[in-house]
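Morning run. Coffee first, then this:
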Amino acid sequence: MQPLIDPNVPVLPGRPGERIAWQSLHGAARSLAAVRAAELHTGLTLLVTADSAAAYRMVRELEFFRREADLPVLMLPDWETLPYDAFSPHQDITSERLATLNRLPKLKRGVLVLPIKTLMQRLAPPTFLDGHVLLLERGDAFDPHTYRARLEHAGYRAVDTVSERGEFAVRGSLMDIFPMGADNAYRIDLFDDEIETLRTFDPDTQRTLTQCDSIELLPAKEFPLDGAAIARFRNRWHAAFDVDVRRCAIYQDVSRGFAASGVEYYLPFFFEQMATLFDYLPRDALLIRDHDCEAAAQAFHGEVFERYESLRHDIERPILPPKDLYLSVEEMIAALAPMTTVVIDGARHAVSFATREVPDVSVNHRARVPAERLIAFLGTTTAP
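And here it is:
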């Protein structure tokens, strides 16, 4: 084992395919070491956790510790639904996923955080976002009827008043839209057939926030809903399932152009070929992962198969086999193998950090000095 080192200057593997381990990183020290590694690395850093709770915690800690404001920290969250669930992910989750996937191919440097089960998930190919992102600029010609159809094909919902992502509303010469991946809703003000102004506004108060020159509209779903995609869905359904489609609500809804609840678990039917996150990543990405990621992947794979065996006999809602929706553990390990890798709390080629667990420093109101535990601890530490 190598000698103790400073977590502000982490040791990194030297070449693709090389793996080292970091040990003795207690509490937030693992996030500190990870963000310093990302600052040293010249490309993208992929940080994979064993579960979603750890991923969200790491994002908060990375944003706290980063010294470089231009080092983006992105999250690719899990859908937060059970495998084969009849519920769709929340719009905010879909929004963050689409924004991250859209940004990844253009990202030269930064940190991408995700749980292991998200890494195993098959995704829409990068060409989907390339072909379905709309850019609107002030002064552009704009036909509300044409763009209404385009937004509906992209999965947006027409409403009376916009309140959440994935919605739009048309009122005379105004169109309100809350794009996926955006922090604010937008108001498009037309003069004749031209965009006169673009403004952000607060959906709660309807008050204008700022003027802007352009907006980027991501699709509202992780799949298209245009005529070609619907026809592809129907053809793939008939090829995969021998069931009476009149009794299948999912099939009927998609045929009418509706994004049925839980349709995400039929994602392969909308595309000629599926992709994985590895199709979005650069080859020089640095991988930092928890040591228990493989065990978590095995557990998730078992959960998927258990759910599949329990639900696959439903003739009104037939489901796809796990291999169509997820990488196997072996496929995932093979895809990770060529990457430059750091395993947190790993055993082989270990580097040990000079950190220690914080003892119990809680306030004892019954003691003469309630903060005596904290005072005693501070007396054993040296300020940096």
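The mean pLDDT is 89. Good start to the day.
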